[in-house]
């Protein structure tokens, strides 16, 4: 099988899985086997493309000419493969988790959920492997449209309201800013094809480039840069596996990946450094990091606290890209991986707590570590990964981001990153610590209805297996980051 065929197979597996899931929807076990087989097959195909990409081979596929010079076409480059590796692996883990969660929580419309989840992963593959901005925009919009029903999955008034905010912000920013930036880029350069070093001529007006950069940054609403972040907390009405999809597997990672790709392959690092707007956009990203951290600290609902944490952490990735240095770009790309594993573990844990203990508020979690020791240990590990300290892989991405601020002498941003890490300690670590240590210092352990200390009662086994795998992944990323690091360095 040729490498071009493997690329096209990677694009088609998830849509074909949607068909299989719909056909087997009446048989629950068979439907879930189809999901798992499709996810595992996709991951195997993407892994098989790793070494050819690292060796610098050209892997492309041309599907359709729309206009002269404008085509639906795909080409694998290192950052795209990085994104595809993370998303395809986490599709497997999230499917395992969702089997336990959806059954344990008695969710309705499970066939629709698994089918749309597969379609979302298909859109992610299209974004990851897009050869040009036109192809990327098509799949970017498909991702928005096929995740909207997942956000409104519960069918309640609150879910529909959250879905309206989700759709209005994401469609509004993409049509109002992102599409405008793409059209302007086409008119200015005559091409939308991603190219190493960027596509703009050296004599392009810096003021015009500033306008385009602002349009791109605000237009990629999935990156949740403030003030276009409201869709993310609003979408927390969705089931926890959907929250995991939004925060770790697909949606927000698609947003920051697009920003990385635009900065690196549309503008180019040298051009990006010279654009006047880059400086104030850096400080906007910094403000987003800090403000979201402060808001997260004030949230008592667990999923909302994690949602605002995501807004903050996405700011790290945007900031690293806008630093326009090799270290900053490396830190951003690594943080896509590290945040994916850390945040998906946190959401898995939040869902496990809901299914097993029916708790959603942080104040209700005191002593729950004695009832759910595996879940809360995973929560602790994932918290350390988000904070960026050993023994977790978040250490590496935060290190390179700090190095990027040092190289550019952005001392204020360096201090802001440090302050944000301290705030993340304040809004994450007390949760698992109180879960295990309550009962000391006057606090009482979690008790059941009879007033007795609760026995161990974890979430359904598939969910526990999934959150354990991703928590172990957080640690493995500290010890074995080279697989991703080599891929990133070959693409910068």
Automatic annotation (TrEMBL):
Occurrences of domain NADH:quinone oxidoreductase/Mrp antiporter transmembrane (ranges)? 130-423
Where does it mainly reside? membrane
Identify the residues that the record assigns to the NADH-Ubiquinone oxidoreductase (complex I) chain 5 N-terminal domain, covering every copy: 70-114
InterPro entries per record: CPA3_Na-H_Antiporter_D, ND/Mrp_TM, Proton_antipo_N
Keyword line: Cell membrane, Membrane, Transmembrane, Transmembrane helix
Query: From which domain of life does this come?
Result: Bacteria
Localisation: Cell membrane; Membrane
Residue intervals passing through the bilayer: 6-24, 33-53, 79-101, 113-130, 136-153, 165-187, 207-225, 245-268, 280-297, 306-324, 336-357, 378-399, 411-429, 461-480
Does the keyword section mention DNA repair? no
Its placement in the membrane is given as:
Multi-pass membrane protein
The UniProt similarity line reads:
Belongs to the CPA3 antiporters (TC 2.A.63) subunit D family.
Q: What is this protein called?
A: Proton-conducting transporter membrane subunit
In its UniProt entry, the species of origin is given as: Microbulbifer halophilus
């Amino acid at each position: 099988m040729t490498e071009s065929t493997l690329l096209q197979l990677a694009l088609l597996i998830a849509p074909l899985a949607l068909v299989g899931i719909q056909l087997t929807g009446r048989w629950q076990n068979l439907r879930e086997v189809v999901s798992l087989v499709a996810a595992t097959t996709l991951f195997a195909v993407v892994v098989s493309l790793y070494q050819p990409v690292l060796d610098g081979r050209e892997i492309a596929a041309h599907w359709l000419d729309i206009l002269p010079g404008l085509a639906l076409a795909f080409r694998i480059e290192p950052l795209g493969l990085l994104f595809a590796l993370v998303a395809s692996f986490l599709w497997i883990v999230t499917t395992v988790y969702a089997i336990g969660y959806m059954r344990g929580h008695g969710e309705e419309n499970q066939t629709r959920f698994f089918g749309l989840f597969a379609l979302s992963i298909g859109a992610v593959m299209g974004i990851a492997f897009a050869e040009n901005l036109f192809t990327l925009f098509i799949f970017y919009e498909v991702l928005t449209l096929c995740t909207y029903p997942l956000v409104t999955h519960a069918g309640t008034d609150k879910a529909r309201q959250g879905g309206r905010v989700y759709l209005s912000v994401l469609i509004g920013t993409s049509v109002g800013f992102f599409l405008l930036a793409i059209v302007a880029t086409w008119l200015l350069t005559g091409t939308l094809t991603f190219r190493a070093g960027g596509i703009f001529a050296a004599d392009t007006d810096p003021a015009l480039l500033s306008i385009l950069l602002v349009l791109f940054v605000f237009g990629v609403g999935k990156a949740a840069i403030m003030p276009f972040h409201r869709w993310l907390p609003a979408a927390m009405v969705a089931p926890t596996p959907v929250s995991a999809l939004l925060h770790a597997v697909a949606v927000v990672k698609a947003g920051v990946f697009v920003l990385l790709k635009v900065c690196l392959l549309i503008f180019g690092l040298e051009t990006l450094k010279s654009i006047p707007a880059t400086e104030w956009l850096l400080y906007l990203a910094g403000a987003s990091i800090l403000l979201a951290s402060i808001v997260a600290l004030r949230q008592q609902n667990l999923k909302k606290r994690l949602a605002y944490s995501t807004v903050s952490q996405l700011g790290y990735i945007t900031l690293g890209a806008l630093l326009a240095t090799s270290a900053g770009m490396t830190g951003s790309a690594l943080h896509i991986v590290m945040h994916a594993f850390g945040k998906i573990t946190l959401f898995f844990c939040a869902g496990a707590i809901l299914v097993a203990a029916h708790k959603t508020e942080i104040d209700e979690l005191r002593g729950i570590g004695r009832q759910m020791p595996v879940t809360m240990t995973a929560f602790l590990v994932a918290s350390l990964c988000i904070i960026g300290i050993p023994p977790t892989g978040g250490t590496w991405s935060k290190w390179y981001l700090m190095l990027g601020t040092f190289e550019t002498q952005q001392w204020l941003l360096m201090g802001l990153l440090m302050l944000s890490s301290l705030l993340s300690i304040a809004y994450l670590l007390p949760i698992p610590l109180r879960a295990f240590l309550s009962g000391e210092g006057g606090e009482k352990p979690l008790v059941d209805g009879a007033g007795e200390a609760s026995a161990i009662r974890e979430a359904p086994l598939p969910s526990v297996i999934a959150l354990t795998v991703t928590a172990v992944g957080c640690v493995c990323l500290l010890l074995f980051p080279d697989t991703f690091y080599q891929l990133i360095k070959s693409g910068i």
